[in-house]
Write a structure and sequence with these properties.
This protein is an alpha/beta fold and 212 residues long. It is 41% helix and 14% strand. The radius of gyration is 17 Å and the shape is globular.
Length: 212
């Protein structure tokens, strides 16, 4: 295995509380605080627009995305932290010469800023956001383009994420796929090639897949 591609929210980092904070501030500004859901974790994964559409339904307007982004950019890392074992796992993979990439539906510039603040950015060869290419997950395009950038064929890559969008994107691009069970975990009928209970499981999986 020569490359591992990671989703961000619910895979590398637990950002649910900060997303919920920004959502609450957004709804308060819009005078729609009564729309605040009890469980924000179950709504994370499709990007800001998808989150707001789920929360506001027919009341959603494009301007609401700008309001949310304003609040989130002001409060990106209040409660957000890497999942336990993530920094150590990334460090070990990097030592072994594995190319590491983030493929998220979050804005690229926001993703980079969060990774910088959490001292994770140094591990990654590339950060692909939901606005980097014309399509985002579950489209395989971001994964395909990321692999082209690092020069790794899909059959030598693993896509790790906690939602169906991650698994569909990886499968469509031709990579192996793994479900991060420590995350927010939302799957439809699609099945990953592997399931991971902890981040360190990636290390043993990478060794097994590569035949080491």
């Amino acid at each position: 295995m020569r490359a591992v591609l990671f989703d961000l929210d619910g895979t590398l980092i637990d950002s649910a509380d900060d997303i919920a904070l920004s959502l609450r501030l957004t709804l308060k500004e819009l005078g729609k605080l009564d729309k605040m859901p009890r469980d924000v974790k179950g709504l994370i994964g499709g990007g800001v627009r998808a989150l707001l559409e789920k929360v506001l339904g027919d009341e959603f307007e494009e301007e609401h995305v700008r309001v949310f982004r304003k609040h989130y950019l002001s409060n990106p890392v209040v409660h957000t932290r890497p999942y336990e074992g993530i920094p150590e796992t990334l460090s070990k993979l990097k030592e072994e010469g594995v190319s590491l990439v983030v493929v998220t539906n979050k804005l690229e510039e926001l993703s980079v800023e969060i990774l910088k603040r959490l001292n994770l950015i140094e591990f990654f060869d590339l950060v692909v956001g939901g606005n980097t290419f014309p399509e985002k997950k579950p489209s395989p395009l971001p994964v395909i383009k990321a692999l082209e950038f690092v020069g790794v064929e899909p059959e030598h890559a693993l896509m790790v994420g906690d939602t169906s969008a991650d698994i569909e994107a990886g499968r469509g691009a031709g990579t192996k796929t793994a479900l991060a069970r420590w995350g927010y975990v939302r799957l439809n009928s699609i099945k990953p090639d592997y399931t991971l209970d902890t981040p360190s499981d990636i290390l043993s999986l990478a060794s097994r897949v590569s035949g080491v």
